[in-house]
Every structure is written in structure tokens, then in C-alpha cells.
Amino acid sequence: MPVNVLIPTPLRKLTNEQAQAQVEGATVGEVLTNLGVLFPGIIERICEETGEVRRFVNIYVNGEDMRFVEGLQTKVSDGDEFSIVPAIAGGR
Questions:
Q1: Contact predicate 76/51, CB 8 Å
Q2: Does residue 92 belong to any structural domain of this protein?
Q3: Which of 37, 44, 60, 69 is deepest in the core (most CB within 10 A)?
């Protein structure tokens, strides 16, 4: 069974305005790969050419930042909530 990927507003133009997608995968990396198959162009916005998640994009699995778990190898399970959160820059 898939995980529930929450799509942030800035990326919804790449998902036909879908706010959520059901995506298969056993790790964060597999979910991202399969998300890219479902929605061409989205991975380039999330990951560097090396495959690593961009510095200004955070990914949470059930509220935990995958960078502090096992990175792209972080395990995901059926029904997990997978959030993609682009960093918001601000200033004066």
C-alpha cells in the first residue's frame, strides 16, 4: 500500500493541482523516485542532480525530518504521511 504524499502549493502546478498523491515505496528515496514517475518535472524541484534533497526542501515522514533519521534511506510504511515542505525565505 502507498504512503500519502502531501504536495505543497508551489509544486501543485506539476501535479495537476493535486494536494495529495498516493505513492508506493519502502524508503524516502523510492517514494521520491516514484513521485517523479507520476509527475514528470517534480523531482528536479525537490532534488539536486546528485539525487540528494535540495538544501531548502524539507521532507517529513509522520512529522519527523528525514535528514535526522536515515536521509533518503528512511523507511516508510503503508499509510505514512509524507510531507514535502519548501523553506520560506524572509527578510527585511
A1: no
A2: no
A3: 60
Closest CA to 32 of 10, 48, 47, 12: 47
Residue 62's CATH number: 3.10.20.30
The pLDDT averaged over each successive group of 10 residues in the chain (92 residues) is 92 96 96 97 94 94 95 95 84 57
Residue ranges making up the domain that contains 54:
3-86
Identify whether 67 is part of a domain. Answer: yes
Given a contact cutoff of 8 angstroms between Cβ atoms, the answer to whether 44 and 1 are in contact is no
pTM given for the model: 0.91
Is residue 81 a contact partner of residue 19, using CB atoms and an 8 Å limit?
no
